[in-house]
Amino acid sequence: MTPKLRTRAIEALNDFVIETPSWGFADTGTRFGKFFQDAAAIDLGDKLSDAGHVHALTGCCPTVAVHVLWDFKAGEDPKAVAKLARKHGVKIGSINPNLFQDQDYKWGSFGHNDPAVRQRALDHCLDSVAIMQATGSEYLSLWFADGTNYPGQGSIRARKGYFEETLKALHQKIGPKQTMLVEYKPFEPAFYATDVADWGMAYLLSKKAGPRAKVLVDTGHHYAAQNIEQIVAWLLDEDMLGGFHFNDRRYADDDLTLGSIDPYQVFRIFHEIHFFAADRGKAPKIAYMIDQSHNEKPKIEATIQTVVMAQELFAKAALVDHDALRRAQAKNNVVDAELELKKAFFTDVSPALAAWRKANQLAADPLAEHRRSGYQKTAAADRRARRKALGLTQGGGYA
Asked: Where is pLDDT greater, at 399 or 248?
């Protein structure tokens, strides 16, 4: 690795931060069941402690995504939660409303044909906006399970209209420096017509909602053959890419650690972002977030794996020679254009990562340092004892 490339990789690492999810540290599982872990977080305090530990090891996870239903008790002061986060060395990040668990949402939330249910869903989101304001959060992250399972079950156009109306009402209540992220998902739990099924639907709904609404791309929420980096490039060009939920998949929404299946795809996504920044002369503002719930891997180890892999691939993507790539593209030189990407992808960026970690007084190997620290063993012993004292059945709700 040349000194020039090393400097470029370090500069990329300086600009890269990624948010961990509170639910990723708790006992979660598939819709069929879950396998419990002694060290899994019991409450928000545990989750923030785990997130703070990951940030201390990696140096690039300063915020934690929280879930309104799972992380905030009724009547709890959100400012107290923000204070607790600071105690653990992190801040509250994106706020995630829950619009899929209550019985009222059997037929949908923002897409429900009953205006009373839509209003209830909107009120919950407005409560989430109040939490955003109290905690200093910048992002409201919206995912909807809404849809229909059978032909003729509901009016597709009417449901679209309900979404437009309710998202617009919500957008009017967010602050001037806050962003509303609209996520899409092609299926599950709605298998015939998911109301926000792809990036185009999320784009149109966001545009109609208002200028502070953007699209959130979950790398797991796509069909296996989809070209995610093309979607990313289009959204970037339209100034509509708001953020990511990072995970990997073999089929769809598998919640696997990033890069465990296809690291080259993640590299290509990051390349489109770096290439866009090079063309525009300014990096786009994007919320990089993790959305994973591990049922087999130890939760903190899996999170560290994803963070380290994201750093590595982001740094690699920064090494593409954009001038050489443009020249090859201008001549329709397919081989050389592809090789510019491959050359960067196969570059060993470990010297740059080592230098960056040393400069930031971080462990040379975050995963190894976590294992040496004994944090997992201590947390497991403490949480086993607390569960027993509290009479808890391990796991409880989804997160």
From this structure: 248
Residue ranges making up the domain that contains 190: 3-390
Tokens representing 259? 């890069």
Give one word for 339, left, alpha or beta, with left for phi > 0 and alpha for psi -120 to 50.
alpha
Query: Is 79 part of any domain?
Result: yes
The two three-digit tokens of residue 105, written as one number: 């949402």
- Assess if residue 397 is contained within a domain: no
Closest CA to 206 of 179, 175, 228, 233: 179
The model's pLDDT over 86-145, given as tens digits with 9 standing for 90+, comes to 999 999 999 999 999 899 999 999 999 999 999 999 999 999 999 999 999 999 999 999
CA 28 from centre of chain: 16
Does the model's pTM come out above 0.90?
yes
Q: How far apart are CA 336 and CA 142, in angstroms?
A: 41
CATH of the domain at 99: 3.20.20.150
In a domain, 396, yes or no: no
Task: Check if the beta carbon of residue 110 is closer than 8 Å to that of residue 126.
Answer: no
